[in-house]
Amino acid sequence: MKAIWLAAVVWLVPVAALACEGPVAVCKSKVDGFALISEGKPATVYVDANSAGPVLQVAQDFAADLERVSGVKPVIVNDLNGLSGPVVIIGQAGQPVIDGLVRDGKLDLKDISGIWEGYVQQVVTGPMPGLPAALVIAGSDPRGAVYGTYDISEKMGVSPWYWWADVPVKKQTDITVLAGARWDAPVVKYRGFFLNDEEPALGNWAREKFGGINAEFYAHVFELNLRLKGNFLWPAMWGKSLPDDDPKSLAMADRYGVVLSTSHHEPMARAHVEWQRQKDAGLMSGKWDYRSNAENLRTFWRGGIERRMCSSSASGSTKTMCHEQVITLGMRGDGDEPMTEGTATALLETIVADQRKIIGEVTGKPLTETPQVWALYKEVQDYYDHGMKAPEDVTLLFADDNWGQIRRLPKAGAGPRVGGYGVYYHFDYVGGPRNYKWLNTNQIEKVWQQMDLAYASGADRLWIVNVGDLKPMEFPLDFFLDMAWNPEAMDVNALSAYPVNWAEQQFGPELGYTISYLLTDSSKWLARRKPELLDAGVFAANPDFKVMTRDWQDMLAASKEVRAELGPEYDAAYFQLVHHPIAAAANVYELYNAVADNQALVAKGDAAGANTAADVAEQAFERDKAISADYHALLGGKWNHMMSQTHIGYDNWQQPDKDVMPVVKRLPVNGVVPKRQAVVADYSAVQVVEVPRHYGGRYTDEHGYVSIDAEFFTRAFSDIGGDVYWELVPDLGRTAGAVISLPQNAPPSDVTASSPMRVEYDVATLKDADAVLHLYLAPTLDTQGRGGLRIGVSIDGGVVQVLGFDLKPDAPDWNEAVKNNIHVLRASFPGLAAGAHTIKVFRIDGNVVLEKLVLDTGGLTPSYLGPVRSFQK
Predict the structure, then answer these.
(1) How far is CA 327 from CA 233, 268, 330, 368, 394, in A?
(2) Which one has a higher pLDDT value, 713 or 82?
(3) Radius of gyration over alpha carbons of the chain, in Å?
(4) Coil, strand or helix: which one is 598?
């Protein structure tokens, strides 16, 4: 299998050409243009001494980046007089040097005038007397200057993950910036992440390295956020408060320019833990219940807003909000629980009205001048669905189901609102049906499908994702924030190229394609079923898990080869970003496969086989600890504790206090139960069914079924006019890829139209049968609240059967769907005659993701992924 897996990527191994063309392109060579680094000497960096904190900070960071690339520390100056060599000017509109260049006609900022976080990069000839050239990076505001500067850093070879994942910076003798100008600006206004569920891993690591979750810790978080093009943060909150634990963290956020807020259940700039702390200190009393304790809660909330204020006049009589903030509104129950049963919608409306009154009183400004967000999370969305009113200027933050399916989006035709809409998404979760916190189990293809739907539906004000401990979510977080910068640019082609580009950025072009396949396949395979949901019963019930176990071992062998081929300077980064999740997942699969084998062989009385399986299982359990220890030992223990999340031994939704070895039994041999032996698991007997190549022709039911990956349709028909069309999304879902309709927010299609929108699959059956068609769909939700999602099916010219599904979080069918990462619909076709047929699948609603079709003509047997693709004739 290893050879088969590697063969899939060999044709892509040739080195990708590095583009060095276009305005302000950054070239890693000496060519005509602005010499950012020349013969190892970096350009001078200029920044106005009176610049805002973020501009001063990014100038320092850029100088450090130039040193990382060149090996020489550049000079930072605050005065251009007397300079003669190349200089990088970092600033923003409104500063004397920038405005002077605009006034002299040497710099053009009209494209970013009045735009949020926009920037211009321009090579300017003769910016000042005696100065032949400058690279000018000018922002429409401080963060615009930050993004324009970090963009150059990234293009000259400094990965945003240089510190958080130890990606090495390759030294360059020459870096040239080509002539011209370019500008850019974000589309989604607020873009960020939520540090959550951060114990034991991130919390213990931060306490060891920084003494706690404090300003020193957050400096690294803020820098990463901005390098990833984010600007927004929900801070760590398990027993923590950013302003209360270390007030210097607020100043650090200002220094970097990160917008702070508080999570979905922490209103009015207050961390939840502060309520208990104030009660313990005798400053507050009563329950977290607005009906019985409103006055105390209002006092508590007022303190949160007042803490964000500072004097803006010499007398101190005028106050302004001195820390950039989006204020969270609303209220949930104590400790991120639902409100008490029977909570009235009117009560929540009253709470929000009272909170806004406090904001207005404390700030002394119109409410529209203080950004506010109301998270429609879990039961709060239900109140919204039942008519809860939200002020027009408040951002409504919709949420997913905690498992990657967005629950609700703006109603079709609702039109824009002043506060706009946003999405709260999850890469990590604590809750039912099972916590998932250990490894990255998030496909960027799934993230793209859901966030493309969100953007198409009008949710473009705030995108935030729960990243747990931050590590090991590096890859999907980078993608999430890249997409948030410009969702329209992240089309399917850009999505498909993303893993390659990302791998090349971290590890260079030589092995970029191969590493991209490891990234894509490992995240796809981990998403099939979260590791926390694995156990021996799953393996025993689904024979394809044994094949998956062998596949993981083959991928592990391939990853080891790549690791050996990379230079030693890449080893720590490669281990963190690529190899560790593969090694850890492969080992857990081996563990549970061996436990399942042990149970089956004990039942058969096969002592030798059962005892060997027990040995393999116990070795795998110990190896799990060793793999984590290898991670913790990297770079002298830099990431100690970061992989300490428990993940083996779940017996309910909550994590075990420690990893628990599954029970195995040994049988006596000649009356003696043998001690454990060192063994090597043998997968040579595992039957691997090779997936046939797709080459055209009719799929046949040689084995009593026809199995087709959805992307391999025979024909596709768009809506009349082509405004709604089918799109193939490679690797989306559990197997080969998926078919969706775009744009995803298009109105429902009419299956009775003269030429309805559909995809067709030509098949051939060898015998008459009462056939059943199985449609394997991603477990998406009805974001419009129309009563479910629909898809149509027919065979040949038969009547279209409309199949519907309406998954509701916490309902039994939703639980099974998110566990399995699939939802299967079935349609019966009794009396299907042997011969040639055409299966037709009709679009009705958007956000229906078709992954696989299986036509059962009598031979289908249970399996987790469904049978592999059938042969064509």
Answers:
(1) 12, 6, 10, 12, 10
(2) 713
(3) 29
(4) helix
Contact between 88 and 45 (Cβ < 8 Å)? yes
Q: Domain 190-490 belongs to what architecture?
A: Alpha-Beta Barrel (3.20)
CA atoms in the 13 A half-sphere facing the CB of 418: 11
Is the per-residue pLDDT at 336 higher than 60? no
Contact 657, 212 (CB under 8 A): no
Dihedral (Cα; 635, 641, 647, 650), 10-degree rounding:
170
**Partners of 131 in the β-ladder:** 128
Nearest C-alpha neighbor of 24 from the set 115, 131, 108:
108
Q: How many residues does the chain have?
A: 873
Mean pLDDT confidence for 345-360: 95
Q: Span 67-76, mean pLDDT?
A: 98
Evaluate whether 36 touches 42 at the Cβ level (below 8 Å): yes
Using an 8 Å Cβ cutoff, are 165 and 576 in contact? Answer: yes
Q: How far, rounded to the nearest angstrom, does the alpha carbon of residue 322 sit from its chain's CA centroid? A: 31
Residue spans of the domains in the chain: they are: 19-184, 190-490, 496-686, 699-856
Is the pLDDT score of 590 beyond 80? Answer: yes
Average pLDDT, integer, range 132-140: 98
* Domain 19-184 superfamily per CATH: Chitobiase/beta-hexosaminidase domain 2-like (3.30.379.10)
**What's the whole-number mean pLDDT along residues 599-611?**
97
Contact 769, 721 (CB under 8 A): no
Query: Tokens 């920044």 correspond to what residue?
Result: 47
Alpha-carbon distance 571 to 78, whole Å? Answer: 40
Asked if domains 19-184 and 190-490 share a fold, the reply is no
Residue partners of 546: CB distance under 8 A and separation at least 6: 539, 593, 686
Give the largest CA-CA distance in the chain. Answer: 96
Spatial distance between the Cα atoms of 322 and 325, rounded to a whole number of angstroms: 9
Query: Once rounded to an integer, what is the mean pLDDT over residues 782-786?
Result: 97
CA distances, 475 to each of 485, 490, 821 (Å): 16, 15, 20
Report the distance separating Cα 807 and Cα 823, nearest Å: 9
Instruction: Kindly write down the DSSP assignment for every residue of 98-166, as one continuous string.
Output: HHHHHHTTS---GGGTT-TT-EEEEEEEEEETTEEEEEEEEESSHHHHHHHHHHHHHHTT--TTTTTS-
Name the 3-class secondary structure at 276. helix
- What does each C-alpha distance from 854 to 51, 170, 187, 298, 710 come to in angstroms? 63, 49, 41, 58, 10
**Distance between CA atoms of 56 and 327, rounded to whole angstroms?**
27
> Is there a contact between 809 and 401 (Cβ–Cβ < 8 Å)?
yes
Say if pTM beats, i.e. exceeds, 0.85. Answer: yes
* 330, 375 contact by CB (below 8 A): yes
pLDDT for position 682: 82
Structural contact between residues 119 and 136, judged by C-beta atoms closer than 8 angstroms: no
Give the separation between CA 705 and CA 772, rounded to whole angstroms.
9
**Strand, helix or coil for residue 329:** strand
CATH of domain 699-856: 2.60.120.1620
What whole-number percentage of the chain has pLDDT above 70?
95
- Of 150, 157, 151, the closest CA to residue 173 belongs to 157
**What is d(CA 820, CA 734) in angstroms, rounded to the nearest whole number?**
9
> In this predicted model, what pLDDT tens digit does every residue of 532-569 receive, in sequence order?
999 999 999 999 999 999 999 999 999 999 999 999 99
| Least confident segment among 15-24, 255-264, 503-512 | 15-24
Q: Report which of 481, 401, 389 is spatially closest to residue 444, judged by C-alpha positions.
A: 481
Phi, psi of 199 (to 5 degrees): -115, 140
CB–CB of 201/645 below 8 Å? Answer: yes
CATH class of this structure's domain 496-686: mainly alpha
